[in-house]
């Protein structure tokens, strides 16, 4: 009986393997994604991975051969007009493999042959598309009604009237500034004919969706420039929060910043050509044939070839570009990470990171174990006693002593933002002013002679007195305990340094407590833990309120949304004001239709309706400038 069951199980497994193999053969023939069960055998998975690699290798070899043949052919110059363009892509690079780039090839002398093949196929498809539109315009047109955002109704003809024509009818300025249209809530090209009765919204660059479309178009310009410059294989070029990027496979070469000027010039020339952005609806199989030279490197497979990514940003006019560049420069200059490092560097401090746990022998050497062990968190591991550090001094002494020191290195300044633990009595704990775990802006300065400390105090101009019994582990005591020495100017290698302990804030937590009490909960916007509260007018607006909250959160703000249906609108606003949210954003059906918010402050000052993108830009500016009165400046 057992033998029969074993044989039946073996046959069942073999049948499953056959089904998997059959599915795999079919997938390879059709080049489709994997459809067999996830539990397919490891051997089959290994064969599949090897087959993928071989297929990609073969594809690259074919492309390399085509590129070499193209280089051997005579180059044909591209025609371009002399009209100036105001849009200017700014290009930066982010290589997915951080390797040194050297010996990169020069710009291609002619475009790869697959570009010409792609354009021929596109022209064929475009003729078919234009013929279909012409037929519909001649035979299927009818009068339609277009509802504009202000409620007015315009007349038009289906398959003939375009959003751009309607924009011109409103004002030439609107037509010039419009980037994209929305028809019945769907993004719609400005020159795409309307197909029936609809609502129409014209979006300019200050709208977030319009920016995404503009940057997506700019990504295609960058892609064309990259393809013509490098001759590689385009993979993916989406818009992102601030600009766009394009990924490209270019075999074994990298991207150098020295190539950016040439790449930007190519982008400018493409813009001068005023190539139209045209929309075609075609079958997936045709697109696969059109872009067969580009394969799916961008799917994030670690065992596939490395891609090169180039970032860019563009604007409709040079004024906006200059404003962005100025803002970026200000943001870089105000970056606290940059400022902090620069200030430390300017004062000749070296920032270090020391361990959180030390063996008790270190604390015995420093003297802390004898005098301070009851205030330390200690524990035993493998018959050894360890403790969380209550201060950084002994660790910094070890750093000083790890190699011979010279008088030329003095004063040596070591800064540390390490976490400290002290087992304070529960009765002494008080909010953030006295805690058991805290961080210090700690530093130790190793000086040459103790007299320098007295001289500095004398020169400071404030009366001081010496307290010999205090500072139990500083001054000359720690250097003696750790036998710290340096080579003096006279060649004596037994000179003792003096340690000066410096903490400007002391405890960072204590400083936060002082600021909280000083501001009384009314934190300035740039420092506030409660920057934005989104309040929906009613249940029908809750989904939009959540969307707005997410947009502000993704833009880097501390944002929340009040979905408590038991409270009235006024109660929600009042709750947000009492919680000291800097800005309260009220949203209803009107704001939803305009993708806007109605702004008021915690002091109940009403600023009115503004688009979400404009509000985000304003708040970003207030945050970067660290304005103390952002609510008034809004």
From TrEMBL:
What's its catalytic activity? tRNA(Thr) + L-threonine + ATP = L-threonyl-tRNA(Thr) + AMP + diphosphate + H(+)
**Where in this chain does the record put each Aminoacyl-transfer RNA synthetases class-II family profile domain?**
341-452
* This enzyme's EC code(s): 6.1.1.3
Give any Gene Ontology cellular component.
mitochondrion
Molecular function GO labels:
ATP binding; metal ion binding; threonine-tRNA ligase activity
Keyword list (alphabetical) reads:
Aminoacyl-tRNA synthetase, ATP-binding, Coiled coil, Ligase, Metal-binding, Nucleotide-binding, Protein biosynthesis, Zinc
Among InterPro entries, the record links this protein to: aa-tRNA-synt_IIb, aa-tRNA-synth_II, aa-tRNA-synth_II/BPL/LPL, Anticodon-bd, Anticodon-bd_dom_sf, Beta-grasp_dom_sf, TGS, TGS-like
Which residue numbers delimit the TGS domain? 142-204
User: GO BP, one example?
Assistant: threonyl-tRNA aminoacylation
Coiled-coil blocks:
4-64
UniProt-listed PROSITE patterns: AA_TRNA_LIGASE_II, TGS
Give the family per the record.
Answer: Belongs to the class-II aminoacyl-tRNA synthetase family.
Q: What is this protein called?
A: threonine--tRNA ligase
| Species annotation | Bambusicola thoracicus
């Amino acid at each position: 009986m057992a033998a029969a069951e074993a044989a039946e199980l073996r046959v069942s497994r073999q049948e499953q393997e056959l089904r998997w193999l059959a599915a795999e053969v079919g997938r390879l023939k059709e080049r489709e994604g994997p459809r067999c069960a996830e539990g397919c055998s490891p051997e089959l998975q290994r064969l599949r991975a090897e087959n993928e690699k071989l297929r990609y290798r073969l594809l690259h070899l074919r492309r390399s051969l085509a590129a070499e043949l193209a280089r051997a052919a005579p180059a044909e110059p591209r025609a371009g007009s002399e009209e100036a363009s105001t849009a200017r892509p700014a290009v930066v690079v982010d290589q997915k493999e951080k390797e040194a780039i050297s010996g990169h090839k020069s710009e291609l002398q002619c475009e790869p042959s697959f570009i010409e093949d792609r354009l021929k196929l596109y022209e064929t498809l475009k003729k078919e598309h234009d013929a279909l539109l012409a037929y519909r315009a001649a035979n299927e047109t009818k009068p339609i009604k277009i509802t504009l955002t202000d409620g007015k109704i315009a007349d038009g003809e289906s398959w003939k009237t375009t959003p751009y024509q309607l924009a011109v009818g409103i004002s030439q300025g609107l037509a010039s500034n419009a980037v994209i249209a929305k028809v019945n809530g769907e993004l719609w090209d400005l020159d795409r004919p309307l197909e029936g009765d609809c609502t129409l919204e014209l979006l300019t660059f200050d709208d977030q969706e319009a920016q995404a479309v503009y940057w997506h178009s700019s990504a295609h310009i960058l892609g064309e420039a990259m393809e013509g410059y490098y001759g590689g294989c385009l993979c993916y070029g989406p818009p992102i929060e601030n600009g766009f990027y394009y990924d490209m496979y270019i075999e074994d070469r990298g991207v150098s910043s020295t190539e950016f000027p040439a790449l930007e010039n190519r982008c400018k020339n493409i813009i001068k050509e005023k190539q139209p952005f045209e929309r075609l609806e075609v079958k997936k199989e045709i697109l696969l044939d059109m872009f067969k030279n580009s394969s799916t490197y961008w799917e994030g497979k670690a065992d596939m070839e490395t891609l090169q990514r180039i970032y860019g940003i563009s604007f409709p006019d040079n004024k906006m570009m200059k404003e962005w560049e100025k803002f970026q420069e200000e943001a870089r200059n105000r970056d606290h990470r940059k400022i902090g490092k620069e200030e430390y560097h300017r004062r000749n401090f070296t920032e270090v990171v020391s361990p959180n746990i030390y063996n008790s022998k270190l604390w015995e050497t420093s003297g802390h174990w004898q005098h301070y062990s009851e205030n330390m968190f200690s524990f035993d591991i493998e018959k050894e006693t360890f403790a969380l550090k209550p201060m950084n001094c002994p660790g910094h002494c070890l750093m000083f002593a790890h190699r011979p020191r010279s008088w030329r290195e003095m004063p040596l300044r070591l800064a540390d933002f390490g976490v400290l633990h002290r087992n304070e009595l529960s009765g002494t704990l008080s909010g953030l002013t006295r805690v058991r775990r805290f961080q210090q802006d700690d530093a130790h300065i190793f000086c040459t002679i103790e007299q320098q400390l007295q001289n500095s105090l004398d020169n400071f101009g404030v009366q001081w007195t010496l307290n010999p019994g205090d500072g139990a582990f500083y001054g000359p005591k720690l250097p003696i305990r750790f036998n710290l020495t340096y080579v003096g100017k006279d060649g004596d290698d037994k000179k003792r340094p003096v340690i000066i302990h410096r903490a400007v804030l002391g405890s960072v937590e204590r400083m936060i407590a002082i600021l909280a009490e000083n501001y009384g909960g009314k934190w300035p916007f740039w420092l506030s833990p409660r920057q934005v509260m989104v309040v929906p007018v009613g249940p029908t607006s809750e989904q939009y309120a959540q969307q707005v909250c997410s947009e502000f959160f993704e833009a880097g703000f501390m944002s929340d949304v009040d979905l408590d249906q038991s409270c009235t609108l006024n109660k929600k606003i009042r709750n947000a004001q009492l919680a000291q949210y800097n800005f309260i954003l009220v949203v209803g059906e009107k704001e939803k239709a305009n993708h806007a918010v109605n702004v008021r402050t915690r002091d109940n000052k009403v600023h009115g309706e503004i688009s979400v993108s404009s509000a985000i830009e304003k708040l970003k500016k207030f945050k970067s400038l660290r304005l103390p009165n952002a609510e008034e400046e809004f």
